[in-house]
Write a structure and sequence with these properties.
mainly beta, four-stranded mixed sheet, 14 strands, 4% helix, 46% strand, elongated
Length: 179
Amino acid sequence: SDIQAKAAETIPSYISAYYNGDSILVGSYINREDVYVEAVYEDGSVVELKDYIMSTERVLKNGDNEIAVVYKGKTASFFVTGKRVTELHAHYVGEDVSVGNAVSKRNIYVYATFSDDTAGEITEYLIDSPNITKVGTNIIQIVYGGKKDTIEVPGIVGGTISSIEVTYSGGDVMLGTKI
């Protein structure tokens, strides 16, 4: 029947999938913007697909990860290289920090080396217990990708505010009105 013929036309002859991105940290999500999937139909037409299903959205292991793509019963696959952090180096470049205050990320530079022989500065790291707890050297742990490094942050006695002066430069205000 005509309905069956129309339904058959919407199913591609085959699909192809390609990955155009960089290697990805194990456990991280695959960016769909880096995946190209196309359907090729019996009449030779090619259509880029967006509504396909991937076997996993994350990189699961170090090295080659084969990712299957399924669309209307047709399957294709592509490979994504998973990478692990092999070395982590953190450096503190800030001033002394008052006891009770936290170390600022803007004063910490973190560099990682990966299993795929790439390296670079990292900004999504975790500062384990960032508060300065004592006067003198405070050891602060930096964590990223399952690796750890430490930085030394000098702690100092915090200052005390003895007075605050406030000046109002607006118009007249009725007594008792909030400014």
